[in-house]
Amino acid sequence: MNSAAFRTFARAATATAVLLTVAACTDTSPGSPSATVPAGQQTPTAQAPTAPSSRNTAPSDRNIVMDIRVTLDGRPVDATLNDSPAARDFAGLLPLSLDLEDFHQTERVAYLPRRLTTSGAPEPAAPKAGDLAYYAPWGNLALFYRDGPSASADLLILGHIDADTDRLAGADRITIEAAP
């Protein structure tokens, strides 16, 4: 399969996944209870994501389109995802519960169940404290509690979490769900 055909196939597969996710959100039955999982493992939680709630294309807001519900160590915080292809792909993984560990005294990181798309990535931007990002080479989620050193094409900003830096820096577990 040539690269153009592969890209077309990949776009069609992504569009199908998004449509299936939106269709799943129309089910009004309660989610099934989650199974017990050994400590330290990353586990999906029980509810499907919802479609984007509003559009705001102001560059300073990094194109926020989806509110998400985030808890850090069981305490809720306000958060949003932007309208990038990687953020939409990430939304397809929700709900998630992930164990976090420190990385370079700048961010908390966790590995996702699968890699996200990096096609159509926006221009690189230096991460700010509170940014939720995806580091493509390692396939991990990064929650910045300090501003990052510089922009990198390998780091895709997915959204932002509104919490103080001490809370972000000390977080051991993050749960991310689509907002109701």
From TrEMBL:
Residues 27-61 are annotated as: Disordered. Residues 1-17 form the signal peptide. Residues 35-52 have a biased composition (Low complexity). Residues 71-167 form the Cyclophilin-like domain. Gene3D superfamilies: 2.40.100.20. SUPFAM superfamilies: Cyclophilin-like. Keywords: Signal. This is Cyclophilin-like domain-containing protein. The lineage of its organism: Bacteria, Bacillati, Actinomycetota, Actinomycetes, Kitasatosporales.
